[in-house]
Every structure is written in structure tokens, then in C-alpha cells.
Amino acid sequence: MIAPEDLRLKVTMHRRADGERLDFFFEPVAWTGEPQNMEPGKCDDLRWLPLDALPDNTIPYVREAIRCYREGVGLQRVGMGMIRDDSFSI
Fold first, then answer.
1. What letter does residue 18 receive in the DSSP assignment?
2. What confidence tier does 86 reach under pLDDT thresholds 50, 70, 90?
């Protein structure tokens, strides 16, 4: 379980795929319990991995969000020429 006040917004992503999407990626600073796969039809595995050892089938925009997180990029636009905005931080 994660309390809302224990979440820190790290990356906001505006992307175009089959429509326009806004994705928000948070870092929890505290939690209790163990993660559970609540969508087994969409996710075949759940485990802790180093960020530089992600599975090959990691969804590309999730991989991009992790890269942004590691580089401190707070806002990313995907499918629009991959414009980075390093001046935006959260």
C-alpha cells in the first residue's frame, strides 16, 4: 500500500500513439506490503530488476520514462519529434 503523500511525481509524458495520452510516473518514498500483479492478462511477470537490466519486451514508452527519470528529465513528448525539456523539473 502506498499513501498518496508518499508519492513524488518524477516524469510527465505527453505522447501520441493511437491517440493522445498523458502519462504520470511517480516514485514512492515509502510503502508497505509486496507488489501484486493485478492485471495478469496484461502482465506475465512481476519482479524487481536493476534499471539497466530491463527485459527486452519492456514497453518502449515505459523504457523512455525510466530513461527520463534517470536523467532528471521531468517532461517528455513522445511521437512529436521526441522534444526534451530539461528545464522542467518536479
1. S
2. low
